[in-house]
Write a structure and sequence with these properties.
heterodimer, A: 96 residues, alpha+beta, Ribosomal Protein S5, domain 2, 4-stranded mixed beta sheet, 2 helices, 34% helix, 25% strand, globular, B: 292 residues, alpha/beta, TIM Barrel, two-stranded antiparallel ribbon, 12 helices
Chain lengths: 96, 292
């Protein structure tokens, strides 16, 4: 990971939103723990959005806890980026 | 002619409302980064609105973003939001033409070369802003409308806000005149009691009578009322067609002035009739046979 992360949170538990906690992980890669009201239908797709959004910014060694309330992809991306920025990650401006 | 009869505020940090903003049929949706968002959530709302602008379908509704004041989070809002190509920015608490010049410079800096120019709706909500509103309206070609914010304005002049709205009657008329002089639209303050449909209709009718072209809305249920008031009535449409018919007949007879039901029909009357017919066409309204 290029920079040291803090633990940070973004989003809410309101319908249509997703609440995320990001934290530094001891292991490399991206570890995702997801709860979702639509997990059987969209769990895999949500995990992929979370994973891809973090990877695009070249970040690794990150733990994400996500509680989804039926968020659209654009909401998931926005909340991940907010949480990462709050955690102190250096994000790629052109991908925000 | 861009219709801005209804402009619906949507809280900028509420994903559910942001994704459904296009279903209410408002002429414009205002994705709000200012009053609807607490200071510690400005960063989250800014990103959420930016992504909504890129991915949510708002149908025929114009997308407007109310940024924060340029003395707080406004510059960062412009930098992040403008490249996502909103139709317009609603700039709050505009006090003078220089505020518009400052916003325009920041917008121009943030715009991508190939994108459509972002317009400005100036929110007039202070006594000084009202005093300067004609200069504000003429400050830049990006300014397409003046919107009135009566709650802050009445606090600024030390008056009590009432449903009768006597305390804002002069302000409303000054704002309408300034907008008309600059050939841009005047948008009226929202009616804040979302549960009072009759009051809403009365207030909107007053706004139309004064010359406003639209009204801010804080609740989707207000949109139908606003449209029903600002749309030309069947009587108005019928009258407009009769005026045009009368003036054409007079012109054919070699006269520039006609008479309709005993009243003189001259250029200003014809202009008003033409505006009604044009609006009718834009709205796709048909004329039923209604006696005048």
């Amino acid at each position: 990971m290029g920079n040291t992360l803090n633990t940070a949170q973004a989003g809410t538990l309101e319908s249509g939103d997703i609440m995320l906690i990001v934290a530094p992980a001891s292991a490399a890669g991206i570890t995702i723990e997801l709860e979702s009201i639509v997990f059987p239908q969209y769990g895999q797709a949500i995990m992929e959005v979370l994973q891809k959004t973090v990877e695009q910014h070249g970040l690794t060694g990150i733990y994400i806890k996500a509680i989804d309330r039926g968020a659209l992809d654009c909401t998931i991306k926005a909340r991940v980026l907010t949480a990462l920025a709050r955690a102190g990650a250096v994000l790629k401006e052109e991908l925000l | 002619m861009k219709l801005r009869r209804s402009l619906l505020f949507i809280p900028g940090n509420n994903p559910s409302m942001l994704q459904n903003g296009g279903v209410f049929g408002a002429d414009s949706v205002i994705l709000d980064l200012e009053d609807a968002v607490s200071p510690n959530e400005k960063d989250a709302a800014r990103l959420l609105v930016a992504h909504a602008l890129r991915h949510v379908d708002y149908g025929t509704s114009e997308t407007v973003v109310r940024i924060n004041g340029l003395d707080s989070f406004g510059s960062e809002d412009i930098r992040r939001i403008v490249p996502c190509e909103p139709g317009a920015l609603l700039v709050p608490k505009v006090q003078c033409a220089e505020d518009i010049h400052t916003a325009v410079a920041k917008i121009a800096q943030a715009e991508r070369r190939e994108q459509k120019k972002v317009k400005i709706i100036a929110l007039i909500e202070t006594p000084r802003g009202l005093a300067e509103c004609h200069a504000i309206a003429r400050a830049d070609e990006r300014v397409v409308a003046l919107a009135f914010g009566a709650e802050d304005y009445t606090a600024g002049i030390g008056a009590q806000r009432t449903k009768e709205s006597i305390e804002i009657s002069t302000a409303r008329m000054l704002l309408v005149n300034a907008a008309a002089a600059a050939e841009i639209q005047a948008i009226d303050t929202p009616y804040t009691d979302a549960g009072d449909d009759l009051g809403m209709e009365t207030d909107t009718t007053m706004a139309k009578q004064l010359g406003f072209k639209g009204k801010l809305a804080i609740n989707p249920r207000q949109i139908d009322i606003i449209h029903s008031v600002f749309n030309p009535s069947q009587q108005e449409i019928a009258w407009a067609h009769q005026v045009i018919q009368a003036i054409r007949q007079a012109e054919a007879e070699g006269s520039g002035v006609a008479s309709l039901q005993g009243k003189m029909v001259d250029a200003p009357i014809v202009n008003r009739a033409e505006r009604i017919i044009k609006l009718t066409q834009v709205l796709g309204l048909s004329q039923e046979v209604v006696p005048c």
